[in-house]
Structures are given as structure tokens and as C-alpha cells.
Write a structure and sequence with these properties.
Keywords: Cytoplasm, Exonuclease, Hydrolase, Metal-binding, Nuclease, RNA-binding, Zinc. Residues 21-219 form the Metallo-beta-lactamase domain. It is a single chain. By secondary structure, the chain is an alpha/beta fold. It is built from 16 helices and 27 strands. An eight-stranded mixed sheet has the order 8-7-6-3-2-1-21-22. β2 (22-29) and β3 form a beta hairpin.
């Protein structure tokens, strides 16, 4: 009797980290599998460690190689960490994409905003609908989250059913959209669930995430109490929060002015898809200055301190149309993503120095997470009763705590894995059976580079220790035709003793070259390498850092 196909799972991003989500499911045997990809997201560059890198994306080389076996890419929702890499990476995959209406519309708007708009077809599936993709039958189960139309995916196969939760929470009173579909999740549990692949973001936090409705009440009260102008900043994609701010403004008889292109784009898509039905029309930035201070509310991008976003420009007092004055109020209806603390702090400090009142989630309930805390995780496990649980979407501590909670809840088998681990889900005993290529790609301007790229590695070194350029002209006899030229970038001008650093470098170049055997002096490559080493060593002795050194030898 033929052995049944194996069902496997592998994260290629989003495990051991927050962001850059890409999961794949395989059905078949070790010689040939059909692959289904879930989400294709980004995380954001860190100027300290990755200067000049805008976005970090998962390495899709494995899926490129498996191209003919990749049956589709399914989106759980339209947050950047789940769909932000598609425009750059889809040309390498060229597989069908499946999403619900809002996610598809926001993706289309994102494509149109590109310099060279991409034509990437997306098949729209209704919320709660099912679709056959190769040997997988995928069901979109509504869950509450901080963007419309978030879905857990029930992946039905001949081996069993897997629930891939995506990002979710239990919110009985969401401001818009359906609450998490407890009835359907319980039905999956009753039918027998092979595996739960679940969001771990808040697995270290006890209790339950508060509701969006509570945030809406707080914002309404704060806007009503405010004396001067009010600006609210939130994630542009949080349409429920936009709706809550609009309601608060209407109650306080204020006009809403949209400030920032990302916010304009989401508002347009939300209106087209019905998520802002009944909400008053918003006004453009050009009329902001025409309203009395107590009759206007600016809804701004820039909650993460992005330097060119609206709020940073307002904080620097260099926005062409929108200004705030002493006594005005800014509400940060967002959380600071780890790594953005300095940038957000700089914006807040800039506003405080202008005498502006700042409200954050530290002192008022103006933001709630879209992810489940521990009691919600317990509910999900109780509803679905999986045979196996694999924590994903979190750093090592989050994954560990989610795994520990699952064991305490009596889940028979719990596996923690890392990006690249291929996990057999069934039939038979589950476990890690192989390693797949997994890594990072970097968006550098409009170019996508891999993590070993010279540009990425060298720029990191340059940002730490500068660069020295040496140009030498040598004769056929292996002698200097003229004095070497030295140029330094990012290097201290003088040593501790006050000696010019370029004199140190010049002396190192000349003495090293003249000390070489004549045969090496005639060899441009050998001479350049000897000089390079000597310069780095001489500067290190005087400074304690080894700069990049580029030596150009010209034969005359």
C-alpha cells in the first residue's frame, strides 16, 4: 500500500523575530512537494546596524528553485510585515496570489503608488470563503486585528487540517469588522485539528488585550477636552482607529484633515470598500490653516518617528501647510515598534519643546495591541484542541512562553522551530526533518541585495570606522613616480598627540612601499595589498579602529 503524502511546514521569516513573515506548507514526499506560501512581508532597517537599508525581506531562493511546485501565495491581511515584500519579490515567484477584498484593494493602491507600477494579479476570495489551491483547500476565517479583513487560514488537506492564525486577538466589540469567529474555530476543533501555527507576539502578557471600543471612548473624551488644535497619529492601516478618530472629531465639532500620503491611500481604499461608510468627508491639508484652532483635527502619519513623515516635519516646524502651537495636543494612538524608540523620542521631544501637550499609551488608553495575550491564547487552544502547536510570529522569549503555555493547556505535542526548519506535521509523529535555505534580502534604494552583498557589509564598516583612499603611481622599475595621494572620509583629523592623521597615513604608505622587495614593488596588486594592511595597522595604532582602506596603483 502506498504511503500517504506528508504535510510539512517551514517558516522562512517571522520566527525568532517580529516582522518579515513568510511561511510555507508542503504536501508530497521528499522527492516532490507542492508548496503553498502564506504572507510575504518586510521588517524595517536599523540605521545603526544597516545604514541606508530601507527594508529587510525574506530570502525566497528556495521558492524560486521550487517555482513549478509553488501553487500560490495567500495573504492573511495587509500589514507591511505580511505583504510588504510582494512588489519586490513576486517577479521571482510569479505564482497566483489570493486575498480578500480590502487586502487586494490596498495592495493595488500600493502598486499604483510605485514609480513603475507593477501589474501583479490578485484573486479576490470572500471573507469566510474557501478556495482550492493545488492540493490545498484554504478557508478564510475572520479574526479581529488592527486592520480590516484579517483572517486565520484553515488549510485543509488529505493528511489533516492546519490552522494558521495570522495576526489575531479576541475583541468582542471591534469598532469595525467581524469579531473573531469563535463558532467556526470550535467547529474545526470538533472535526479534529492536526496543528495550530499561532501568533506569539503577546505571549508574555497575562490577561486579555483591551477592546478597540475602549480606545474609541478614550480618544473621544480627550478630543472633546482639548482646547487648541489636536493632531492624532496612528498606523495608517488601522482603519478602525481612523473611524474612531473621525467619530471623536464629529462629536467635538472638528473637521478632520488628513496629513500624509500613506493615510490618504488607506482612507481612499477604506471608503471604496465600505469601511468608512457613514463617516464624514475628510478635508485636504490646503484648508488646515483656515479653521479655528478648536475646530480642526489633523490625522497624521509618522507614529514611528519616520523622518519624512508628517509628524516629524511638524515636530521640526518645517511642514509647509500644517503647524502646531503651544497648548495644542498630539495623541500618539500607536505603540512604538522595537528599534524605533530613538526616532519616536526625537519627534516627541521636538513637539514638547514647542509647548505641545503629548498623550501616549503610557498615560491613557489610546492604543491597544492587535495580538492575543495569554488568556486569549488559552481560549484559542480550548476552542481548537490541536494535536500539535507551533509558536510563530515572535522573538525567542515569545515563542518559548507560548510553547510553555500550550504544554500547560494539555496540547499533546509542541514544537518550537527557527526560520528554515522543515517540520513534518503528519501523518505520524511530528518533528523537524530538514533544513531549508532561509536568510535575508535587503532593499537598498531600488536594488534588492542579499545579506552577503559587498555594499551592505562595507557600508556597515564605513559607518563605524570610515574609509581611506590611497592613489599611487609607480614606474616600470618599481619606484614611486610622484608623492602618493591620500584622502580620508570619516577619520579623525589628528591623533591623540595632535599629529595630523593624514601625515601618519602618508608615512605608512611611503615607508611600506619603499621597504618592499623590488619584485613586489613592480607587482601593482601585491604593492596595493601591502600598503592597505600597513595603513589600517598604522591608523589602528593611533585611533583604536581599523578603517576600510582602498589603494589604487597606477603604472606609468
Amino acid at each position: 500500500m502506498a504511503r500517504p503524502d506528508e504535510l510539512t511546514f517551514a517558516p522562512l521569516g517571522g520566527v525568532g523575530e517580529i516582522g518579515m513573515n513568510l511561511s510555507i506548507y508542503g504536501l508530497g514526499n521528499r522527492h516532490q512537494r507542492s508548496w503553498l506560501a502564506i504572507d510575504l512581508g518586510v521588517s524595517f532597517g536599523d540605521e545603526e546596524h544597516l545604514p541606508g537599508i530601507d527594508l529587510i525581506m525574506p530570502d525566497v531562493s528556495f521558492l524560486e528553485k521550487e517555482g513549478k511546485n509553488l501553487v500560490g501565495l495567500v495573504l492573511t491581511h495587509a500589514h507591511e510585515d505580511h505583504f510588504g515584500a510582494i512588489i519586490d519579490l513576486w517577479p521571482r515567484l510569479k505564482c497566483p496570489i489570493y486575498a480578500t477584498k480590502f487586502s487586494a484593494a490596498l495592495f493595488e493602491a500600493k502598486c499604483e503608488a510605485e514609480r513603475l507600477p507593477a501589474k501583479i494579479p490578485v484573486r479576490v476570495i470572500p471573507s469566510g470563503g474557501r478556495v482550492d489551491i493545488g492540493p490545498f483547500n484554504v478557508e478564510f476565517i475572520p479574526v479581529a486585528h488592527s486592520i480590516p479583513e484579517s483572517h486565520a487560514l484553515a488549510i485543509h488537506t488529505e493528511v489533516g487540517t492546519v490552522l494558521h492564525t495570522g495576526d489575531w486577538k479576541i475583541d468582542p466589540t471591534p469598532v469595525l469588522g467581524a469579531p473573531t469567529d469563535e463558532k467556526r474555530l470550535r467547529e474545526l476543533g470538533d472535526a479534529g485539528l492536526l496543528a495550530l501555527i499561532g501568533d506569539s507576539t503577546n505571549a508574555v502578557r497575562e490577561g486579555r488585550s483591551p477592546s478597540e471600543a475602549e480606545v474609541a471612548k478614550t480618544i473621544a473624551a480627550l478630543v472633546k477636552e482639548a482646547k487648541g488644535r489636536v493632531a492624532v497619529t496612528t498606523f495608517a492601516s488601522n482603519v478602525a482607529r481612523i473611524r474612531a478618530v473621525a467619530e471623536a472629531a464629529r462629536e467635538a465639532e472638528r473637521e478632520v484633515v488628513i496629513v500624509g500620503r500613506a493615510m490618504e491611500r488607506v482612507v481612499q481604499v477604506a471608503r471604496e470598500t465600505g469601511y468608512l461608510d457613514g463617516v464624514q468627508n475628510f478635508r485636504g491639508m490646503d484648508v488646515y490653516g483656515h479653521f479655528p484652532a478648536d475646530k480642526v483635527l489633523a490625522l497624521c502619519t509618522g507614529s514611528q518617528g519616520e523622518p519624512r513623515a508628517a509628524l516629524a516635519r511638524i515636530a521640526n516646524d518645517d511642514h509647509p501647510l500644517v503647524t502646531l502651537n503651544k497648548g495644542d495636543t498630539v495623541i500618539f494612538s500607536s505603540r512604538t515598534i522595537p528599534g524605533n524608540e530613538k526616532a519616536v523620542g526625537a519627534v516627541i521631544n521636538g513637539l514638547v519643546q514647542q509647548g505641545i501637550e503629548i498623550i501616549t499609551d503610557r498615560n491613557h488608553l489610546v492604543h491597544v495591541s492587535g495580538h492575543p495575550r495569554r488568556d486569549e491564547l488559552r481560549d484559542m487552544i480550548a476552542w481548537t484542541r490541536p494535536q500539535l502547536l507551533i509558536p510563530v510570529h515572535g522573538e525567542a522569549l515569545h515563542l518559548h512562553e507560548h510553547a510553555r503555555l500550550a504544554r500547560a493547556c494539555g496540547v499533546p505535542k509542541v514544537i518550537t522551530c527557527r526560520n528554515g526548519d522543515l517540520v513534518k506535521l503528519g501523518p505520524g509523529d511530528p518533528g523537524i526533518i530538514d533544513q531549508l535555505p532561509a536568510g535575508r534580502l535587503y532593499k537598498d534604494g531600488i536594488i534588492v541585495e542579499d545579506s552577503k552583498s559587498r555594499a551592505v557589509v562595507e557600508r556597515r564598516k564605513m559607518s563605524f570606522a570610515g574609509c581611506i583612499f590611497v592613489a599611487m603611481a609607480i614606474t616600470e622599475k618599481g619606484e614611486l613616480a610622484d608623492d602618493p595621494e591620500v584622502d580620508m572620509v570619516g577619520i579623525p583629523e589628528k591623533t591623540v598627540a595632535g599629529e595630523p592623521m593624514d601625515d601618519i597615513v602618508f608615512d605608512a604608505v611611503v615607508s611600506t612601499f619603499e621597504g618592499l622587495p623590488r619584485a613586489r614593488r613592480r607587482d601593482p596588486d601585491a604593492a596595493a595589498e601591502s600598503v592597505r594592511r600597513a595603513v589600517r595597522s598604522a591608523v589602528n595604532e593611533q585611533w583604536g579602529k581599523k578603517p576600510i582602506c582602498l589603494v589604487h596603483v597606477l603604472e606609468v
